[in-house]
Amino acid sequence: MTSEAQAPSRRHKFLVVVDDTPECRTAIRFACRRAWHVGGGVTLLRVIEPPDFQHWMGVEQVMREEARAAAEELLQSLAEDIQKDTNLVPEFIIRDGYVKDELLALIEEDPDVRILVLAASPDTGGPGPLVKSLVGDMSGTFAIPITVVPGNLTDQQLDAVT
């Protein structure tokens, strides 16, 4: 009798880029509700971009440390909300660099990331630079599906579509 080794089952992850926009929480709620319904996971990516100036290395280092501490605090707070709502424990990733570059690198590195969830800005100035870039310029070549959620949906509307 022969037995075939089965590949370990992979957990589908919904990836959300955490930024300081109000619509970010809409993307997080959508991703968490979808992950909860399908038995998947959620990864929250926070990217700390380099400062605009680099005059004094000591000041730059302090700014980076403060940004990292703020990112950890924000992600911890979001995780508590996510656990209360869905019992999911999200994965945190904090990276230094530029959002688009770090996002693409993470998707390439982690084959369990199956869907990127972004929220479009409800402002009249357009959906936001990341959404424009990924859905516009790169849409035909992007490695995974992108879900763009309207940033002005209420919790009740999000719950109805997830």
Can you characterise this structure?
The chain is globular. It has 5 helices and 5 strands, in the order βαβαβαβαβα. The chain has a single domain (16-109, 116-161), classed as Rossmann fold (3-Layer(aba) Sandwich), CATH 3.40.50.620. With 162 residues, the chain is an alpha/beta fold.
Total count of domains: 1
What do the pLDDT scores average to? 86
SSE string, helices as H and strands as E: EHEHEHEHEH
Query: What assembly state would you assign to the polypeptide chains in this entry?
Result: single chain
Give the CATH level 1 class. Alpha Beta
Architecture (CATH level 2) name: 3-Layer(aba) Sandwich
CATH topology: Rossmann fold
Identify low-pLDDT runs.
Answer: 1-8
Strand-pairing-aware structural class: alpha/beta
What is the number of beta strands?
5
CATH superfamily: HUPs
DSSP helix fraction: 40-55%
Distance between the termini: 45 Å
The strand order across the widest sheet is 3-2-1-4-5
Q: How many helices does DSSP assign?
A: 5
| Shape category | globular
What gyration radius follows from the Cα positions, in whole Å? 17 Å
Characterize the main sheet. Answer: 5 strands, parallel
* Proportion in β-strands: 15-25%
Name some characteristics of this structure.
disordered N terminus, 162 residues, five-stranded parallel β-sheet, globular, 20% strand, alpha/beta, Rossmann fold
Structure summary:
The chain has 162 residues and is α/β, with parallel strands linked by helices. It has helices spanning 24-38, 57-86, 99-109, 129-137, 155-161, and strands at residues 13-17, 41-48, 91-96, 113-120, 146-150.
